Amino acid sequence: MEDLQISVKKVGSAAVVKFSGNFDYDLDHVNEELIEKQLSSSPDAIVLDMENVKKMASAFINRLVKILRIVDKEKRRLYLLNVSDQSIKVLSMVNIIGRFSILHSEAELKSLHNSSSAKNENPSSVHLSISRSAEDSKHRLSVSGSIVEGANTSLILDEVKSSLGSGASSIILDLAKVDLLDTISVGILLMIQKMCEDKKVTIKIENPNEVITHVLEMNEVGRLFGL
Q: What is the CA radius of gyration of the chain?
């Protein structure tokens, strides 16, 4: 069997730890000391890149949870990058998929980092805007910009609340002018969906680009919005 290989690189302010090989053995190399060493250089986030992972054994799942606790304790973020469909299924089967923020490409990671940096330097530089139109009780919210950490994503929540308060019977989120949705911000969409469900109001997403569609499908929420 192929030995486990580990490499580390920096992407922005994140430390990206990349694995390849088989996790059935050599687990002592994927340990708390490795993560603590990376945290000692003060990155904003630890990213576990599993693009080349062939198999995820149960012992490694337990270690992932331990790593998550370490990162949480240090008030940093933990992301899983390039997780295979099979690994997603395994994490879902053991009911811990919701504990991890999942990125689907290094481009998404870089965009996330750029948005976070922009927020620190100038909060208004991360663009997100919404315009609302209504025909009878059917409301359309046209979103522009990036729905990512660092943007004012609560704006979407506020607009949906306003539509519900105005007696909307259905709401469409038009994402034709949205370039990016990150995994963290999927939580905002889930909150919106639950609000609409409680009010028995239909909500759908229209015109998402390929990247956004992929993020929604990988997080298994696309079907909640009619995709």
A: 19
